[in-house]
Amino acid sequence: MAKGDRNREQLRQQRIEAEAAESKGSRNRLLLAYGAGAAVVIAIAVVVVVLVSSGGSSGGANVPSDRLDEGGAHINLNTSYGSTNGVHPDERAGIKPAPAQATDLAAAAKQAGCQLKLHLRDEGHEHIPPGSPPPHYETNPPTSGPHVEPPFQQADGAYSETPAEIDYVHSLEHGRLEIQYSSQLPETAQLELKGLYDTMYGASLLFPNDKMPYQVAATTWTNMLVCPQYKGTKTLEAIRAFGKETWGKYGGEPVYAFKFTGPTPAEPAES
């Protein structure tokens, strides 16, 4: 082969090798780009999953209040029948109460050292706008009187905070039973009350109330059972008897006007 031909052949080989090297580099850059893109997509997906599972913020602060119930609070999520009004649910697992023994309300109240006040004066049924300052109620906790307009009546459920008075008074008007307790009660006592509530949660509410001068109280419209001291099973028996006697019978508005599920104070679940 002539010298000129050898030079041309050498240049051709060099060009082929250079093109091959450049092609390999392009493929490597493309693979790196694909890999980086996939990593970004995965990272975005992880962020989306975290946000969805946490409600968009730590502690679920931006979750609509009517979606907070996970079952343990038994909150009625249908806003046509009331509102949580931003009050957080009590999802703690309650302590199962002992089987019912007492059946007579007056006797049960006396044994528990509670005061039973029935057929109190009806303080009126006036509707007032949400956020209004509470009127002067003649009883503490209140058992009747002006209350928030629909649909802001406090929804059935167990709450870890105290609802506004005008909100839960409206609930009483619809025959609801409300169990209230001092937040200073020991945790075990609170869980015993939660366990009792779990047996009769239909059309009932449970929440702490540090405005009242009692450790425990149960109310229906114009009726109250107030207990200066919590005495365990005796107090639970008195509340259960009070619910059987007064739930759904007072307030002037039918208890079934707002649908609910589960056992009721009139027919609680067997403990």
Question: Can you offer a commentary on this structure?
Answer:
The chain is an alpha/beta fold and 271 residues long. The protein is built from 5 helices and 8 strands, in the order H-H-E-E-E-E-H-E-H-E-E-E-H. A 6-stranded mixed β-sheet has the order 1-8-7-5-6-4. The N and C termini lie far apart (105 Å). Residues 30-70 have low confidence and may be disordered.
Percent of residues in helices: 25-40%
Largest sheet data: 6 strands, mixed
Number of contiguous helices: 5
What structural class do helix, strand and pairing data support?
alpha/beta
Layout of SSEs?
Layout: H1 3-54, H2 105-112, E1 115-117, E2 127-128, E3 147-148, E4 157-158, H3 165-173, E5 177-181, H4 187-198, E6 204-208, E7 216-220, E8 223-227, H5 233-246
Parallel strand pairs: 2-3, 4-6, 5-6
Antiparallel strand pairs: 1-8, 5-7, 7-8
Helix pairs in contact: 2-5
Brief synopsis:
By secondary structure, this protein is an alpha/beta fold. The chain is built from 5 helices and 8 strands, in the order ααββββαβαβββα. It has a 6-stranded mixed sheet.
Which descriptors would you attach to this protein?
two-stranded parallel sheet, 11% strand, 2 domains, 271 residues, alpha/beta, globular, 5 helices, six-stranded mixed sheet
